[in-house]
Amino acid sequence: MIELASVIKDLREELQRAIEAGKGEELRFELGPIELEVSVVVDRSDGGHGKVRFWVVDLGGEHKKDTSNNQRIKLSLTPQLAGTNRRPHVSGRAEAGES
């Protein structure tokens, strides 16, 4: 399992790479809302602070039959460049070796 914050961090890093790849390109795309749907397990620890964590379930590998504690959540993220009201642009050109 992976923490939800790590999933969003990784997504942010991938989008940043796409933004960098788009600089100076003739064809770019404005990045609109991103729909992210994940299966999560909610972990609540009671140790005085009552912290709640959301763990994203890795669907690869072994799949457990008991999924009663798993929940599906859908996040709608709207990317925005820091310090502006502008949406970022990403490249329309694939990297070498991509189809």
What is the secondary structure topology, with strand pairs?
Elements: E1 2-3, H1 4-22, E2 28-30, E3 34-45, E4 51-56, E5 70-77, E6 89-91
Antiparallel strand pairs: 1-4, 2-6, 3-4, 3-5
Region (Disordered): 78-99
Domain Trypsin-co-occurring: 2-79
Organism: Actinacidiphila paucisporea
Shape: elongated
Number of strands: 6
Work out the helicity level. 10-25%
Strand percentage, roughly? 25-35%
End-to-end separation in angstroms reads 30 Å
Characterize the main sheet: 4 strands, antiparallel
Tally of alpha and pi helices: 1
Low-confidence spans: pLDDT under 50, at least 5 residues? Answer: none
Structural domains: how many: 1
| Element-level helix/strand string | EHEEEEE
- Biggest sheet, strands in spatial order? 1-4-3-5
> Roughly how many Å is the radius of gyration?
18 Å
Mean pLDDT: 79
Q: Which structural class do you get from the secondary structure elements?
A: alpha+beta
Task: Describe the fold and architecture.
This protein is of the alpha+beta class and 99 residues long. The protein has one domain (2-60, 68-91). It is built from 1 helix and 6 strands, in the order βαβββββ. The chain has one helix spanning 4-22, and strands at residues 2-3, 28-30, 34-45, 51-56, 70-77, 89-91. Strands 1-4-3-5 form a 4-stranded antiparallel β-sheet. Strands 2-6 form a two-stranded antiparallel ribbon. A hairpin with a 5-residue loop joins β3 (34-45) and β4. This is Trypsin-co-occurring domain-containing protein. Residues 1-28 form a coiled coil.
